[in-house]
Amino acid sequence: MDSIPANRRLWNQISSAYQHEHDPQIGAMPRLWGMYSVPDAHLHALGDVTGKRVLELGCGAGQWSRALAAEGADVVGLDLSEAQLAAAGRAMGAGRAMGASRYALVQGAAEQLPFAAGSFDLVFCDFGGLSWAPAHLAVPQAARVLGRGGRLVFNVASPWFEACYDEAASRVTTTLRQDYFGLNTIAEDDGASSYQLTYGDWVKVLRGAGLIIDDLIEPRPELETPNGYNETDPPDWAHRWPAELLWVTHKP
Ligand SMILES: C[S@@+](CC[C@H](N)C(=O)[O-])C[C@H]1O[C@@H](n2cnc3c(N)ncnc32)[C@H](O)[C@@H]1O
Description:
It contains nine helices and 14 strands. The chain is α/β, with parallel strands linked by helices. The chain has a seven-stranded mixed sheet, sandwiched between helices. Helix 1 (4-26) packs parallel to helix 4. S-adenosylmethionine is lined by residues 4, 7, 11, 22, 26, 57-58, 60, 64, 79-81, 84, 109-111, 126-129, 132-133.
């Protein structure tokens, strides 16, 4: 199913409220991963980006892209939603981007990347295009635009977190609610879709695109770290079980 139009519509609708609620957390410091803002300095997923050609898949308001441009990377922030890109553009225009000249915004879909093969040294996202596009379409596209030795690094919700999500209570609990093998397409508001794979299917789709898996990091927030997006019961859920998967891969 083509979820591009519905996902674009959803993100255009929610962009303003989403940024109002989450921008302070996402942009609090450079390089914060995921729902618990775990610093990359603890996880070492991205490495040095100085002088690298970087593509962020689903950049939202560009908090990550701006930070990497300021570190000396040449960054393209791609997003499906013009409202999200407008938020990124405003933030850039407000002078928050020290590396603004190294940073471009492009509207597009992770399923159909508008770039030539081998254009980037690093493709990455944090709950971006690889959460909102079918992986069997988006991963081969990411692999295509990477040069040899280039890395694909991305953070998504774990199947544990998704399978334990209680729709009725709008929170993650310790009870399995969804079938692990049936996660796949997750219905979001207004006909939009996000996507989830089993561990085995992630391995298949990454290897199938010719990528080497270097690491699977399971970010573990410290006790008491709040989840900025979802309620969990117990509150320390993610300290006890993995809420996110941070895949680190490269193209040989
Ligand atoms: C949760 S945000 C991730 C951005 C940022 N890391 C953040 O946490 O706000 C998801 C982003 O993915 C974008 N998106 C949704 N579907 C997409 C697709 N098929 N291709 C590229 N971007 C997409 C949305 O517009 C949105 O900006």
